[in-house]
Specification:
The protein is α/β, with parallel strands linked by helices and about 325 residues long. The chain has a domain of about 180 residues: 3-Layer(aba) Sandwich (Rossmann fold). The protein contains 14 helices and 8 strands. An 8-stranded mixed beta sheet has the order 3-4-2-5-1-6-7-8, sandwiched between helices. Helix 8 runs antiparallel to helix 9.
Length: about 325
């Protein structure tokens, strides 16, 4: 399915991870469990509103009575503290990366919102933006064990392995984009990259690994030009394994939010993108709403205040609360 003026998703071309450092080890599996629920908020492109969404979702959950911690997981460009009006502190993820701190709770600083804490991203230590695989896995394990009701990860831009692995480590993935062709194209790339990164983690057999390699490299082999075709090929090679993979990937179900909507056509983008992704990837991307373009947002940012606190009865604040309620309900 093609959206008017928007490039259709495709598997061809240079794979998104081909320019990344050679860390092809499997991504971590998300485990649904009692206790903290991990929200991973991404979108592929910078400037679409990931930090804004993370901050205000965190505030909403805290105002509902939950104990919430938001973590700036954009290790190379941390700015979540600005969205929350918290001064940059010397206590950041740098301390964890350098092993000056062994727990994340001691890095969490309170915000002006009761029940809401913040862990600022790394940024001062050389190399913190590209942690070693063991450091990344140690961080993910610690995040999973945090003593909060909800933990929100504000991810960086792009489709590097670190960003993908943080996204896939969550119990709940939330994607955000703008109603613009470049943003939507980057969103498709992010979904594709995360989809195949998860498949890499799940698949062990040699024949299927070869098929994944062909698909990920974007070759012209017509039999693997879409994930649906890939699953059919796997099922023919190994029917039982193919069925298991298909079922496992059905659990890959990101929620989608469209930001800066200006008109009715923009408002329909979320449903169109979700439908196109479902038809192409075979995964259940769910559109959970949109946020209107509102000048109050940038006015709040300039005041270093979350718009939900500065303009709590605005239309956009109501839309944000509705999105959170819908995500919690699903």
């Amino acid at each position: 399915m093609m959206l008017k003026g928007v490039p259709a998703p495709r598997l061809g071309g240079e794979p998104p991870w081909s320019r990344e450092r050679p860390d092809a080890r499997p991504a971590p599996t998300a485990h649904i469990r009692p206790g903290a629920r991990i929200w991973a908020i991404g979108g592929g492109k910078g400037g679409v509103g990931k930090s804004l969404l993370t901050a205000n979702v965190g505030i909403t959950l805290a105002q509902m009575g939950s104990r919430v911690c938001v973590i700036d997981a954009d290790l190379g460009g941390a700015n979540l503290h600005t969205c929350l009006g918290v001064a940059q502190t010397d206590v950041t993820l740098d301390h964890f990366v350098s092993r000056r701190s062994e727990t994340l709770e001691e890095l969490a600083v309170p915000t002006s919102v009761p029940n809401l804490s913040l862990i600022s991203g790394a940024g001062h230590m050389l190399g913190a933006a590209n942690p070693k695989y063991q450091t990344k896995m140690r961080l993910i394990r610690k995040i999973r064990s945090m003593d909060f009701d909800h933990v929100l990860l504000d991810l960086g831009a792009g489709t590097g392995f670190d960003t993908l692995d943080f996204f896939l480590s969550g119990d709940l993935g939330v994607l955000i984009c703008l109603p613009e062709p470049t943003s939507i194209d980057n969103l498709y790339r992010f979904v594709k990259a995360a989809f195949f990164r998860r498949l890499q983690e799940l698949e062990q057999t040699h024949q299927v690994r070869e098929l994944l390699g062909v698909a990920m490299a974007g070759t012209t082999d017509a039999t693997v030009q879409s994930p649906r075709a890939l699953f059919e090929r796997i099922k023919r090679l190994e029917p039982e394994r193919g069925a298991q993979l298909h079922e496992a990937m059905r659990q890959f179900a990101p929620r989608l939010v469209v930001n800066q909507v200006r008109n009715g056509a923009d408002a329909g983008i979320g449903q169109q993108v979700a439908l196109a992704a479902r038809n192409y990837f075979g995964c259940d991307v769910q559109s959970v709403g949109y946020l209107q373009y509102d000048d109050s947002v940038w006015r709040a940012v300039r005041k270093r205040r979350a718009f939900l606190l500065e303009y709590p009865v605005s239309t956009i604040a109501g839309a944000l609360r509705s999105i959170v309620s819908k995500i919690l309900a699903t």
